[in-house]
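Thread title: Can someone regenerate the structure for this chain?

I was given the following input by a collaborator and told the matching C-alpha coordinates would be attached. They weren't. Posting the sequence so someone can regenerate them.
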Amino acid sequence: MAVAATVALLPPVRNKISITYRVLTDCAAILVTAPVIIFNLWYFYIITFQY
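Best answer:
Regenerated them for you:
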Protein backbone atom coordinates (compact mmCIF):
# COMPACT_ATOMS: atom_id res chain seq x y z
CA MET A 1 0.00 0.00 0.00
CA ALA A 2 2.78 2.45 0.91
CA VAL A 3 4.67 1.56 -2.28
CA ALA A 4 1.57 2.25 -4.41
CA ALA A 5 1.08 5.62 -2.70
CA THR A 6 4.74 6.53 -3.25
CA VAL A 7 4.58 5.56 -6.94
CA ALA A 8 1.38 7.60 -7.31
CA LEU A 9 3.08 10.64 -5.76
CA LEU A 10 6.32 10.40 -7.74
CA PRO A 11 5.37 12.02 -11.09
CA PRO A 12 4.24 15.42 -9.67
CA VAL A 13 7.26 15.53 -7.36
CA ARG A 14 9.58 14.69 -10.22
CA ASN A 15 7.87 17.37 -12.33
CA LYS A 16 8.38 19.95 -9.59
CA ILE A 17 12.04 18.95 -9.20
CA SER A 18 12.66 19.17 -12.96
CA ILE A 19 11.00 22.61 -13.12
CA THR A 20 13.08 23.82 -10.17
CA TYR A 21 16.21 22.37 -11.76
CA ARG A 22 15.42 24.10 -15.05
CA VAL A 23 14.87 27.45 -13.29
CA LEU A 24 18.12 27.05 -11.35
CA THR A 25 20.11 26.16 -14.48
CA ASP A 26 18.55 29.13 -16.32
CA CYS A 27 19.55 31.45 -13.46
CA ALA A 28 23.05 29.98 -13.42
CA ALA A 29 23.37 30.44 -17.18
CA ILE A 30 22.24 34.07 -16.89
CA LEU A 31 24.67 34.72 -14.03
CA VAL A 32 27.51 33.24 -16.07
CA THR A 33 26.72 34.89 -19.42
CA ALA A 34 25.69 38.36 -18.19
CA PRO A 35 29.19 39.38 -16.94
CA VAL A 36 30.77 38.04 -20.12
CA ILE A 37 28.38 40.05 -22.31
CA ILE A 38 28.87 43.17 -20.17
CA PHE A 39 32.64 42.76 -20.30
CA ASN A 40 32.56 42.32 -24.09
CA LEU A 41 30.42 45.43 -24.55
CA TRP A 42 32.66 47.43 -22.22
CA TYR A 43 35.79 46.21 -24.02
CA PHE A 44 34.25 47.05 -27.41
CA TYR A 45 33.27 50.49 -26.09
CA ILE A 46 36.83 51.18 -24.91
CA ILE A 47 38.36 50.01 -28.21
CA THR A 48 35.88 52.02 -30.28
CA PHE A 49 36.00 55.33 -28.39
CA GLN A 50 39.57 55.33 -27.12
CA TYR A 51 41.09 56.75 -30.30
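The chain has one helix and no strands.
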